[in-house]
Structures are given as structure tokens and as C-alpha cells.
Amino acid sequence: xDGGARAAAAAMxxxxxxxxxxxxxxxxxxxxLVGMSQEELGDxxxxxxxxxxxGKQIFDxxxxxxxxxxxxxxxxxxxxxDKLKGLGVETGRxxxxxxxxxxxxxxxxxxxxHDGRVVETVGIPSNYSSKSRLTVxxxxxxGCPMKCTFCAxxxxxxxxxxxxxxxxxxxxxxxxxxxxRVTNVVFMGMGEPLLNLSAVIKAQQCxxxxxxxxxRNITISSVGVPNAIQKLASEKLQSxxxxxxxxxxxxxxxxxIPSAKTYPLYALMEDCTAYFEITGRxxxxxxxxxSGVNDLPEHAEELxxxxxxxxxxxxxxxxxYNPVDESDYQRPSRQSISLFEETLKKRKVPVSVRVTRGMxxxxxxxxxxxxxxxxxxxxxxxxTSSEDAGRQTATV
Length: 396
Hints:
Blueprint: H1 3-19, H2 38-47, H3 53-63, H4 78-86, E1 95-101, E2 107-112, E3 118-128, E4 131-137, E5 141-143, H5 152-155, E6 158-161, H6 164-178, E7 184-187, H7 197-209, E8 218-222, H8 228-234, E9 240-244, H9 250-256, H10 265-279, E10 284-289, H11 297-309, E11 316-320, H12 334-346, E12 351-353, H13 367-372, H14 386-391
Parallel strand pairs: 4-7, 7-8, 8-9, 9-10, 10-11, 11-12
Antiparallel strand pairs: 1-2, 2-3, 3-4, 5-6
């Protein structure tokens, strides 16, 4: 390997170390350009013997023109493209394996990754206060080890973490699908983001700096992972943390979320309080309403007391359950949803009810993936059970 090739390989290796997920992936991916900053791409250009401004051209090809193959980078000379291909460099763009489009405009894409696995991402167009929005719900893992009892993703098994490149690619795929810029990103798709914290933070930075999405327009959701919320707080991000509670007490939460046995509700709430103290950013709370399970007025009263006890009555987002196959849970009635909402409002807890989108496009997390993957992935792929997940701590 000559000096230029060694320098290029070193540049890619530095990027790979920054973007590496928490667990190793068994099938190694080729080095990906998506996820790299303009500065990193400039370093790469110089390392293969090109002028630094070529990095800006690669940057535009990736994030503006959204080219999927190095061969399409016609702004570069053929020799430069050949050098990149000689290093095994790829853009990192995944194939759209399947698309499901809803009558309300919602689009769910199944992206086929380099190892043949599929992952979901959802584009949700809306008009908010006369402003047009395009929100992307991104996945952070292939499957999920948390196994929340009402979630379709957990039923499909868990395979691995996604890289930062694979997360960013979901946003680029939705921008391509809609032909417009994404305005908001929510880490609420497949997987537990705080079990893949290093890649999620890297992806957040790339989406902000490279794709141009404001930090405050990015939301990171979590059901709760020990020590991870504190680690996220130390990053001092301006993005929103949304904690998935789904129950107002420990006993009920354990029934819905197996990992709650090893990460009790009181500890989670204390970590949320610490997060606010460190970052100055209010935590919001997600609460999936399950008919006859956690949607009664007394549950709402208990939830209000819990939030006020920890001085965290900032905002609750109520999510009426989106039914999935082979589930015993049901969607609550409109009357039950309204009564729960009104009970919180009477206790002066800011609350909103999420408008259900894309039901005819299998838009509930994990639904579409499970239609194409009938058999759950074996847990031995990475050996993570739901209780193990509750014990894990995130690393950055």
C-alpha cells in the first residue's frame, strides 16, 4: 500500500472509530462516506492525492444530490473515483427494499442493509401552524432487545446496532422519497437508542451539521437504560429527550416493559431530574394508551402525582395504541382517550394526543418489517435478552 492509500485508509479508520456502534457487527460493512463531515471528506480527498476542495464536492454529492454510488460522482476525475473504489469505499446508501404509502401521505420504507437485514424508517408530512413539516421516524437498531409487550419490533427479534451512517441514510432516503428537506427527526423507530448511544450521538451531530436539521428539531426517545441518560446529559445536546413511561407505577410498568425490573421507575425519574438539572432541557414523556390496561382516569391521576413529585410535569404525549398482529392489547375508545387527557389537564399537566398516522401502511413500529420477516431473529446473534438490556449501561 503506497503512502496515499495508507493516509486514506487512516482517514476512513478515524471516521469509523467515531461512528462505531456499541456492539460489533458480525458482517463487516465497507467504509461509508455518509456520516462523514465536510472536513473529514476534505481529509480523505487529500489522502488520496486530490485537492481539498474535492471533499466539498463529495459532501454535496452525498447530502444534496444524494448520489448512491461512488461511480456517480462525476465531479471527480475517474482516477479519483477509482482510488476511492480501490479502498473499498462506498457511499453507505441502502437499497429501498419495500415502500408502503398511506392515504394520509405517510410513507414507510424498508431499507435493505449491507448484511441483508431490513430496517424501517417513516416519513410523516404535516402542516403545523401553517408551516409545512416533514418528520422522519428513524430506527437505531435492527430489531429491539427491550421486548416491550405491546411493541411489534420486539416480536421480530434483535440482530444488531445500526451505525451512524445507517441512521443518517434513513433521513436521506425519506428526503429522496418526498423530494423535499426533512425538518424534524425523532429516534422513535426500531430499537432502543440509548443502547446504541455512540452511534446515535454521531448521527445526531451529522444530521445537524451535514444535513442541516436544527438540534431542537431532533428528539431522542428511550424506554430507559441504566446510566445512559446521564451519559446523554453529559453531551449537552440541544435535542429533546422523550422518555417512554407507559405506566404510572412500578408494578404495571414491569408487566409492560421487562427491563423495568432491573431499572425501576424511581431510578428512571431521578435520572430524568438530573438530566434537566445538567442540561436545562425539559424531559418530555411518552405514554402509550392500552385499552383497560393503563388508560383509566386513576392511572392519569397517578401519572400526574408521579410527575409533580419529581418536578417533571413538563409535557406528556399520549399515544393511542396502534394494534399489531398477535397482540392481546386493544386501542382505547375516543372517550377513554379524551377522559385521560382531560384528567391530566385538570391536574395542570401539559398534554397532547398524538394523531395516528399511516395505519394503512403498517406504520406502527416494527409492523412492516415483521411482514417481510416472519421468523424472529435468533437471540444468539448478539446474545441480548430483555433483562440483559435492562442491566446494560451505555458507552460513548
